[in-house]
UniProtKB/TrEMBL annotation:
Gene3D superfamilies per UniProt: Phosphatidylinositol (PI) phosphodiesterase (3.20.20.190)
Origin organism lineage: Eukaryota, Metazoa, Chordata, Craniata, Vertebrata
Record GO biological process: lipid metabolic process
Name of the molecule in the record: PI-PLC X domain-containing protein 1
Any one GO molecular-function label of the UniProt entry: phosphoric diester hydrolase activity
InterPro entries on file: PI-PLC_domain (IPR051057), PLC-like_Pdiesterase_TIM-brl (IPR017946)
SUPFAM superfamilies, sorted: PLC-like phosphodiesterases (SSF51695)
Length: 114
């Protein structure tokens, strides 16, 4: 594992930059990196637990463009596939998955140099 000191980065940083659009749908699971107890509480007591989960999980209120326009130059993005999702879609997440999926661009065409 590579350890990197983020303090050497100049400029503004955005922690969990995509949390402005977390999925508020009750069907969206808590991500699997969360403690098992939280996952169980969320499964069986969702109406009681979810407001606390959202309060903790949402760290940004502004879309990425607005964050960049405000001077942010480093974005913390967490990406994962939703559990029990048979598609190949990847989503941003922080405690709960976002409504935005990750758009994967195809690699550039391979060129040969002589």
């Amino acid at each position: 594992m590579m350890i990197f000191d983020v303090n050497v980065l100049g400029g503004h940083r955005s922690h969990n930059a995509i949390t402005y659009c977390l999925d508020m749908d009750a069907g969206s699971p808590v991500d699997l990196t969360q403690p098992e107890l939280l996952q169980k509480l969320d499964r069986y007591m969702k109406p009681l637990i979810r407001p606390f989960v959202y309060k903790w999980a949402i760290t940004q209120e502004n879309p990425i463009k607005q964050q960049l326009d405000s001077g942010v130059r480093y974005c913390d993005l967490r990406i994962a596939q939703r559990p029990n999702d048979s598609s190949t879609e990847l989503y941003f997440y922080h405690g709960v998955y976002s409504t935005l999926s990750v758009e994967v661009s195809p690699p550039p065409p391979h060129t040969h140099t002589q």
